[in-house]
Amino acid sequence: MLELENITYRVKDDQGERTILNGVNLSMNERFVAFTGPNGGGKSTLAKVIAGIIRPTEGRILWDGEDITSLSVTERAKRGISYAFQQPVRFKGLTVRDLISLAAGKNAGVSDVCAYLSEVGLCARDYIDREVNASLSGGELKRIEIATILARGTKLSVFDEPEAGIDLWSFGNLINVFEKMYAKTQGNILIISHQERILNIADRIVVISGGSVEKSGTKEEILPGLLGGDTCRVLTEKL
After folding, report:
1. pLDDT in tens, 62-86
2. What is the domain count for the chain?
3. Does residue 33 form part of some domain?
4. Domain range enclosing 76
5. Residue 16 is part of a domain; what is its CATH number?
6. Residue 233 counted as domain residue
7. pLDDT digits 0-9 by tens, 117-153
């Protein structure tokens, strides 16, 4: 179970001190949890706090009862927390096979790498030996990053707008990946998204606005209100 207690995050800039997160309290143990809300509301910041990329100014983070507030990204990863960036990191000199091997914690064989890449809609023979650098598009990098999360098989997987940049890959396939990931790990998946089809698979939707939790509940409780306003970008294309 992930528990956030009074999570507050402030930054200082030329205009003084700004509060990005303001006393967030949440307990999450559902299979799929989705964070949504207006841009600039604090969703990505909160996800980075959970992953350990950002340390909160105030508050505590508990993971399965352990206070992990002061733990680094690496230490949290060892405890089973993965994070996929909205804009994936490029690694010059590192091949796709190298990256998946690092994620899996072993020297992944060709068949293993092919299996993970196939899950995210990539032809393995075209990518396995390519460097994770500027030659790859944003959409390709996003899919490869999702493949590394699959390879890790962690207890908590955090995705920041996983649908970004994958226009040529159907949302149905993306959702199938999340379903298979859960079946493999029986862990928790936290997704930041504005998209209705992503929100529709959530067991719980948390609306974050102005650095605070505005609403939290099941999709039946939350989604109708979102679709009636401007918070959610509704997809109209068919699967």
Report:
1. 999 999 999 998 899 888 888 876 5
2. 1
3. yes
4. 2-227
5. 3.40.50.300
6. no
7. 877 777 767 777 777 776 777 677 777 778 888 877 7
157 inside domain: yes
In this structure, is residue 90 part of a structural domain?
A: yes
CA dist 227 and 100 (Å) reads 38
Q: Which of 12, 106, 122 minimizes the C-alpha distance to 57?
A: 12
DSSP string for residues in the chain: -EEEEEEEEEEEETTEEEEEEEEEEEEE-SSEEEEE-STTSSHHHHHHHHHTSS--SEEEEEETTEE-TT--HHHHHHTTEEEE-SSPPPEEEEEHHHHHHHHHTS---HHHHHHHHHHTT--HHHHTTSEESTTS-HHHHHHHHHHHHHHH--SEEEEESTTTT-TTS-HHHHHHHHHHHHHHH--EEEEE--BHHHHTT-SEEEEEETTEEEEEE-HHHHHHHHHTSSSSB---S--
- Residues 6 or more apart whose CB falls under 8 angstroms from that of 171 comprise 163, 195, 197, 198, 235, 239
